[in-house]
């Protein structure tokens, strides 16, 4: 269980590679990554959006498929090619008037560290690097790409009394 007051969470930010997709990915003939996605993560992301949580994507990657997938799930804050994620994070919180302690960030590797050290509730998948695990309030039992996002979202929605609480839960 996440040891944090999840009732105050207003936004959850996810890295992509190693969090929403597995750490090992195939490549096509042109050298482009072929990411996998977890359907249960997707269900939880779209439900969180419907229940009033702001979900955002913050990745160093850049692929049309990322934008399409998360737009389909209702995510409007999709930041790709984030060379220095803390700069994007500062713009995001300023845009929505959010405080650090209202945010979960889920990352898995060194480029995520600066943001994770700022947010109130840093979380990571089971297979995150040691430095990320060391700063995390919560380490999911699930690996990246295998339900870690669902794990965190479900805990937040349950704590806020929004998990399976209305008709939103039973559709896409």
TrEMBL record:
Alphabetized Gene3D superfamilies for the sequence: HAD superfamily/HAD-like (3.40.50.1000)
GO molecular function terms listed in the Swiss-Prot or TrEMBL record: hydrolase activity
Cited InterPro entries: CMP-NeuNAc_synthase, HAD-like_sf, HAD_sf, KdsC_fam
Keywords assigned by UniProt, alphabetized: Hydrolase, Magnesium, Metal-binding
Phosphoprotein is among the record's keywords: no
Keyword Ribonucleoprotein carried by entry: no
Pfam families given in the database record: Hydrolase_3 (PF08282)
Superkingdom to which the source organism belongs: Bacteria
Cofactor(s) listed in the protein's UniProt record: Mg(2+)
Subunit structure: Homotetramer.
Family listed: Belongs to the KdsC family.
NCBIfam families: KdsC-phosphatas
Entry protein name: HAD hydrolase family protein
Organism: Hallella faecis
């Amino acid at each position: 269980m996440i040891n944090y007051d999840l009732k105050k969470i207003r936004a959850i930010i996810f890295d992509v590679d190693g969090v929403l997709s597995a750490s090992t990915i195939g490549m096509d003939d042109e050298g482009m990554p072929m990411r996998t996605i977890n359907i249960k993560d997707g269900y939880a992301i779209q439900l969180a959006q419907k229940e009033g949580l702001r979900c955002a994507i913050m990745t160093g990657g850049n692929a049309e498929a990322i934008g399409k997938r998360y737009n389909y799930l209702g995510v409007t804050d999709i930041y790709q090619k984030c060379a220095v994620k803390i700069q994007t994070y500062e713009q995001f919180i300023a845009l929505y008037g959010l405080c650090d302690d209202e945010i979960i960030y889920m990352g898995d590797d060194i480029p995520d560290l600066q943001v994770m050290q700022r947010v109130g509730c840093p979380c990571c998948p089971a297979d995150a690097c040691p430095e990320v695990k060391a700063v995390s309030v919560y380490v999911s039992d699930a690996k990246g790409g295998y339900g870690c996002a669902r794990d965190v979202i479900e805990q937040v929605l349950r704590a806020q009394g929004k998990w399976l609480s209305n008709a939103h839960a039973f559709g896409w």
